[in-house]
Amino acid sequence: MTRSDIDGAALEYAAGGGLLNRRMLLASAAAGTAAGLLQPSVARAEADIPEWSKTAGARARGYGMPAAAESAVQRAIIEPWQDVAPAFSLSGTPHHRLRGTITPNGLHYEVHHGGRPDIDPARHQLMIHGLVEQPLQFGLEALERYPMVTAAHFLECAGNSLFNAVMPEPMQAGCDMLHGLVSNTEWTGVPMAVLMEEAGVKPEGKWVVAAGADGPSLARSIPMEKIMSDGMLALYQNGERIRPEQGYPMRLLLPGWEGNMNIKWLTSLWVTEAPVHTKDESGEYTEILADGSSLQFTFAMGVKSFITHPSATMTMNGPGVYEISGLAWSGAGKVAKVEVSADGGESWAEAALAGPVLPQALTRFSLAWHWDGSPLVLMSRATDETGAVQPARTDWKARYHASNFLHYNAIQPWQVTAEGAVQNVYL
Ligand SMILES: Nc1nc2c(c(=O)[nH]1)N[C@H]1C(S)=C(S)[C@@H](COP(=O)(O)O)O[C@H]1N2
Ligand SMILES: [Mo]
């Protein structure tokens, strides 16, 4: 570790490319300001009192909206997939325009295999049937009387980051297009175990086939152990009723498991002895391995991270001190560690994790960085509590067939040019 004095500010370096020690997160702001690196604001002119300080503002309203000047903060509609099937439709969360870890409800990513149905909650029913002592049917009102639990969890489509997986040249687009099919929500609902125990699962009932009420009747086979351990019938999303996009009035939530299994608009839970190999788990959502064979039932999402600030499509505002910030997660549990490199992977420094670090939830990491204006490559590498480490793209590619785009979790390098442009690169 070396210390250097930049105009009186002591910056403590932790790795190459100007990465600062994570103890300097708070200190760096002061140090950066002292060094003139953060461009502190100057005093405001007395005469310049804006009009909003001189008149009454708008009255209270029933449902709030983001500030008008923030109207560009939208989900990215992922066009190339719009023609796959009628109303097959995707949108990605604009992570480069958000901070914190919870995704606002209006910006949660969407994957609809047959469009977003317009469900009348008064007519929607959930049925539990098959290998149970007592088949049950619930309406929304009945479910409101059950005990509920709350937990923050990410949801990630197995197809997230697909462009990096399959495109021969890195696509120049923002985090919304590149990695937007992951979001993080505080979900509230009834534990699946409570409903299953009420129905009375027969000893031979080892799997549950969950199906949605949308046109394509998306359906997946789920091992009973997962349903019973932390499966949730989610009714609320960040405190309010689940949005139509996320499965109104109810969805299955399987913490950490591939998005596709988290059936939206849930209408049927059929208890079976074995998986039934629905079209969604045999035709789609199987990975093709390097030797051409298919891998079925990859349930948990791999350990993954990417830097959101700065990230592709952004421009650096000149040399100086910055905070590198990003998101990390793992379907296997908690994030244990995130390392950041500012020299294309030659040296690494450990980032600070914003607590509480929750299992199967997006975790924000950050590290102070002194960019001296030279071109370099930033990247982040996450390790989870099981010891699993995020792979390099070449290692990930070696495992799968060239056409496979599912379960891509490789390290994301961002090239920073001397002009300050931030670009997507493969390393
Ligand atoms: N019924 C139903 N459930 C569904 C889908 C769907 O199209 N229909 N899409 C699945 C896929 S592929 C994913 S990744 C997630 C997306 O959830 P979200 O749209 O709330 O982000 O829901 C899954 N559950
Ligand atoms: Mo998905």
Automatic annotation (TrEMBL):
Alphabetized Pfam families for the sequence: Mo-co_dimer (PF03404), Oxidored_molyb (PF00174)
Annotated SUPFAM superfamilies: E set domains, Oxidoreductase molybdopterin-binding domain
EC number assigned by the record: 1.8.2.1
Cofactor(s) the record lists: Mo-molybdopterin
Domain Moybdenum cofactor oxidoreductase dimerisation: 299-412
Keywords: Metal-binding, Molybdenum, Oxidoreductase
UniProt enzyme class: oxidoreductase
One function term, GO molecular function aspect: sulfite dehydrogenase activity
Oxidoreductase molybdopterin-binding domain boundaries: 113-275
Protein name per the record: Sulfite dehydrogenase
Gene name in the database record: soxC
